[in-house]
Design brief:
- There is one protein chain.
- By secondary structure, the chain is α/β, with parallel strands linked by helices.
- It folds into two domains: 2-116, Response regulator (Rossmann fold), CATH 3.40.50.2300; 129-223, Arc Repressor Mutant, subunit A (Orthogonal Bundle), CATH 1.10.10.
- Helices cover 41% and strands 20% of the residues.
- It contains eight helices and twelve strands.
- The protein has helices at 9-21, 32-41, 58-68, 82-90, 103-116, 154-165, 173-181, 190-203, and strands at residues 2-5, 26-29, 46-50, 73-77, 95-98, 129-131, 134-137, 142-145, 148-150, 171-172, 213-216, 220-223.
- The strands form three sheets. The protein has a five-stranded parallel β-sheet with strand order 2-1-3-4-5, sandwiched between helices.
- Strand 4, helix 4 and strand 5 form a beta-alpha-beta unit.
- Helix 6 (154-165) crosses helix 8.
């Protein structure tokens, strides 16, 4: 089931109609608190939530959902500022769509998120990977850092897997976006930067001075010992 949290009735109905026409089952909540109640009471495969909601903001709801689940989250926002997008990604959202948007674009992003939820890139193997303080087990979907189990949402897990599978080699930004977000990704590279930052926070001793996930300026990233 897809949970749509949107207070604008006409938009909610349009999104619901288009998703159901594509074969998805959709539940709609008109405010943040109702969205949280529906999320906690029904099995949910993906959440679409507006940034500006009554009762509870989309950012607060995103934070609460992410504390309980790694379900993919797509945020809808009427604001086109970089700060709002980054704030949502920092709180655990996987993607964002800025209003107004085409239903085709939204459906494409929903399909991409559902296709990749809990999955790693197709070009990586299922062998246990190690690098620095990290041990990543794809089959168990587990990551240990310095022996401690660390929880990573699907996108962060896929990103770390991609870097470890190519340890010591440059992984370009274009390749990472294509491999993890897919060729139908419509967003900009800020999404990738935010996810790299979040992975660094869980892997590095000092994320501001990374030793393992390093930036190759103008090209991409590399995992080094």
């Amino acid at each position: 089931m897809i949970l749509l949290v949107e207070d604008e009735a006409s938009l909610a109905e349009s999104v619901r109609y288009n998703l159901e026409r594509e074969g998805f089952r959709v539940a709609v909540a008109p405010d943040g608190r109702g969205g949280l109640e529906r999320f906690r009471s029904e099995p949910t495969s993906l959440v679409i939530l507006d940034l500006m909601l009554p009762e509870m903001s989309g950012l607060d709801l995103c934070k609460l959902i992410r504390e309980e689940s790694q379900v993919p989250i797509i945020m809808l926002t009427a604001k086109d500022s970089e700060a709002d997008k980054v704030a949502g990604l920092e709180l655990g959202a996987d993607d964002y769509v800025t209003k107004p948007f085409s239903m085709r674009e939204l459906v494409s992003r929903v399909r991409a998120q559902l296709r990749r939820a809990g999955m790693v890139g197709a070009t990586t193997s299922n062998e246990v990977l190690t690098g620095g303080p990290v041990v990543l087990d794809p089959e168990r979907h587990e990551v240990r850092v310095r022996g401690d189990l660390v929880s990573l949402p699907p996108k962060e897990f896929s990103l770390l897997h991609l870097l470890l599978a190519r340890k010591g080699r440059l992984v370009t930004r274009h390749f990472m976006l294509e491999e993890i977000w897919g060729p139908d990704y419509f967003g900009d590279t800020k999404t990738l930067d935010v996810h790299v930052k979040r992975v660094r926070e869980k892997v590095e001793d000092d994320p501001r001075r990374p030793h393992f996930i390093v930036t190759v300026r103008g090209l991409g990233y590399k995992f080094i010992e």
